[in-house]
Write a structure and sequence with these properties.
Helix content is 74%, strand content 0%. By secondary structure, it is an all-alpha fold. α1 packs antiparallel against α2, α1 packs antiparallel against α5 and α2 (32-49) packs across α4.
Length: 114
């Protein structure tokens, strides 16, 4: 029996909410404390996506799941410093909302299916 995936989905939503609160405090491209806090939450989020079932991910084909998972390795190991605040800001602006919508849909589908 596999572990329930819903706590990981909720963990992703929590991390997204934290990132949104961080953004509300200021510009992460100008403030290294906000930037570091954002990176930490992106790491948490990307780790949690790795624990979601594949059949759930398939329902959201526009989400770049492998890239999100791979992003964790880039964040943790920071390969040759190839990430920067502007890149992180772009990732957040482009991908956070669709990911949030997908995760919410997963959870609501589960609630109506169960």
């Amino acid at each position: 029996m596999s572990k329930p995936w819903q706590p990981y989905a909720q963990h992703i939503l929590d991390a997204i909410a934290k990132i949104q609160r961080i953004q509300a405090r200021g510009d992460l491209t100008q403030d290294e404390v906000l930037y570091d806090a954002t990176l930490r939450n992106l790491q948490t989020l990307s780790e949690a996506t790795q624990l979601l079932p594949e059949e759930k991910k398939i329902a959201c084909p526009t989400i770049p799941w492998p890239e999100i998972s791979g992003f964790r390795n880039i964040l943790v190991h920071n390969y040759l410093g190839d990430i920067d605040p502007m890149t992180i800001a772009l990732v957040i602006d482009k991908h956070l909302k669709p990911l949030e919508e997908c995760i919410r849909a997963m959870l609501s589908d589960e609630g109506s299916a169960g």
